[in-house]
Amino acid sequence: MKIARFHVGDGPTVLGRVDGDKITDVSGQVGGSLRAILPLLPSLEPQIRTAQGQTFALDDVVLEAPIDNPQKFLGIGMNYKEHAEEARRAGIPVPTNQMWFNKQVSCIVGPYDAIVKPSISDELDYEIELGVVIGQRCKNVKAENARSVIAGYLVTNDVSVRDWLQKRSPTFTLGKSFDTHGPIGPWLTTADEIDDPLGLTMRLTVNGEVRQEWPTSDMIYDIYEQIAYLTQVFTLMPGDILATGTPSGIGAPTGRFLKVGDVVRAEIEGLGAIENRVVAEPSGS
Description:
This protein is of the alpha+beta class and about 280 residues long.
């Protein structure tokens, strides 16, 4: 099942069930917050699947970020084998353990919103990643039980400002958290629809040119190990988003950074695609 947040014209944001190229308003049955219903999603699934609200063509609605007001947006660095080697060749130290960073949730935007290129940097980079959305409050989860706390999956682009990431701050947080640098979507695909999240193909293009194309099976630490590792430290909450690593092909090693006017499309098998145009930062902002 695919669940999206959307609005039509100047109307309110509502929840919708996506079926092919149509979306049906289900907010009359379950309310308007996806984050709020995540813990109840298994029991609400039959109700959502059969809801008979107003139906629209997807082309006639505006899709918003699927998760409203998540508490955490976390990312793991250098978690693909070839990407780690790419970093090593570029002189970037490769961690020997899981290396996590925080993306401020204020960076999150919808699946087709613009990415703003900051005026203070010319090193704007892209990173396609499989996003995992937590469905249950959880602590000290064992890797073999981690699948039970996953509500579903989405596409993320872990947009990064490289000079602020590697040079201007002792942590990754600033370079990962510029406004608009967390596009996610296009919807939440519930976990029951994806037989093997470690068997998906990811593909990112810039202006139609393939820059990243890699299987999720190349992760160094799989998504279950990631959840087990994090929950040793803190409680994960419904709606928390984990960006689970990017494969090789980012712009940093070659200096092929994003420019104003570029269109970045990130697609993951079975989950759909997000597409974002790079725009200039408004003067005076």
